[in-house]
Amino acid sequence: MKQKFSTRWISSKQARKQRKYRANAPLHLRHKLISANVNKELRSKYGRSISLRKGDKVKVMRGKLKGKEGKVDKINLKKLRVSIEGIQKQKKDGTKINIYFNPSKLQIKELNLEDKERVKAIEKSKEIKQGEKKSPENKKFSGSLNSGGIKDVPKKK
Length: 157
Known about the structure:
By secondary structure, this protein is an alpha+beta fold. The chain contains four helices and seven strands, in the order ααβαββββββα. The chain has helices at residues 15-24, 27-33, 40-46, 116-134; strands at 35-38, 49-51, 57-60, 69-76, 81-90, 96-101, 106-110.
C-alpha cells in the first residue's frame, strides 16, 4: 500500500503536489505550516516569520477585513486556519460565528511570550541561525573545485 505522506518530499512546482503535501501532513509538521509574517519592529529580534500561538496579536493583511486587529483565539490544525477574537460574522438568525483566516494572510504584531516552550524554541532558533552565519563550512558543494568550477570526478579508462 502506498503511503499518504512522503517524508522524503522536498518541494514541487506543481500546485496539486503542494496541496497534497499540506493535506496529508502529520500534526507535528502542520504546526510549522501555521506560520505568519512578523511586522518590521519584531523582525530584527525574531526573524521573518514565526508559527502562530494562541494569544498572539495579529493584523489581517488581505480580504474584506483588511486592517482589522485582534488576538488569536483558536488554531485549527486540521484545516490549517486561525480564528481571531472580536472578528465574527452574524448569521441571519442573529447568532455570531468565528471567521477563520489563512495564516499567510495575517501579520504578527505582538507575540505571546507567556508560553515557556515558545521562548525556548525562539532562543534555540536564534542559536541555530547564529551558528549558520559563523561557520564557513555551510557551502553547497563539499568537494574540491578546480579552476573551471566543476567538481573533480575520476575519469574512466
